[in-house]
Design brief:
β5 and β6 form a beta hairpin. The protein has 6 helices and 6 strands. With 195 residues, the protein is α/β, with parallel strands linked by helices. α2 crosses α6 and α3 packs across α4. Strands 1-3-2-4-6-5 form a 6-stranded mixed β-sheet. The chain has one domain: Uracil-DNA glycosylase-like domain (Uracil-DNA Glycosylase, subunit E).
Length: 195
């Protein structure tokens, strides 16, 4: 489908407002999305779903993103991923997650204004909890079960954690994640950061 295009084909940088109150944490660059375009959630169906919802919620300047240079800007929102490279078969190995963890740790340290984290999918949700709980007195992980629409106040003044199913093509085409379901989570996040 994209044979005529030159792929980015290297680790994909994060994207957005460095002063953001909202951090969105995905799984990894899609093989023919961000791995091709060089920007998170750009040029694939997941991005179409995500950016339309972010635009409707006031977090994005336009409802779609097809290229890295298409003018899209995020407002009070920053997007990153648990992995920086597209994993084979979209199933990351524990070793790959461990290898990329220092990048996420550093980003969380640098993004000082974040008040809400939206984890897209269970892998991102678990990766975030793993990073923020290390070296701290932290409740058992069983206190934070992953479920779409769940949100948790975390200890130690950490940002509130929100959870959503990942906007993968499989989830959105089967109805596991609908636009209405995702809009509801974004509305809760907007209310939270406004309070």
């Amino acid at each position: 489908m994209y044979r005529d295009q030159e792929y980015w084909g290297r680790p994909v940088p994060s994207f957005g407002d460095s002063q953001a109150e909202v951090l969105i944490l995905g799984l990894a660059p899609a093989a023919h999305g961000a791995n091709r375009t060089g920007r998170m959630f750009t040029g694939d169906r997941s991005g179409e779903f995500l950016y339309r919802a972010l635009f409707e919620a006031g977090f994005a300047s336009q409802p779609e993103s097809r290229r890295r240079d298409d003018g899209l800007q995020l407002r009070n929102c920053y997007i990153t991923a648990s992995l920086r490279c597209a994993p084979p078969m979209n199933k990351p190995l524990p070793k790959e997650l461990r290898n990329c963890r220092p990048y996420l740790e550093k980003e969380l340290e640098l993004l000082e204004g974040v008040r809400a984290v939206l984890a897209l999918g269970k892998i991102a949700f678990d990766a975030y909890l793993r990073v923020v709980s290390q070296g701290r007195d932290f409740p058992p992980r069983s206190k934070f079960p992953f479920a779409h629409g769940a949100s948790y106040a975390l200890p130690h003044g950490l940002p509130r954690l929100f959870a959503s199913y990942h906007p993968s093509q499989q989830n959105t085409q089967t109805g596991k994640l609908t636009p209405q379901m995702f809009r509801k989570v974004l509305a809760e996040i907007r209310r939270y950061v406004a309070s």
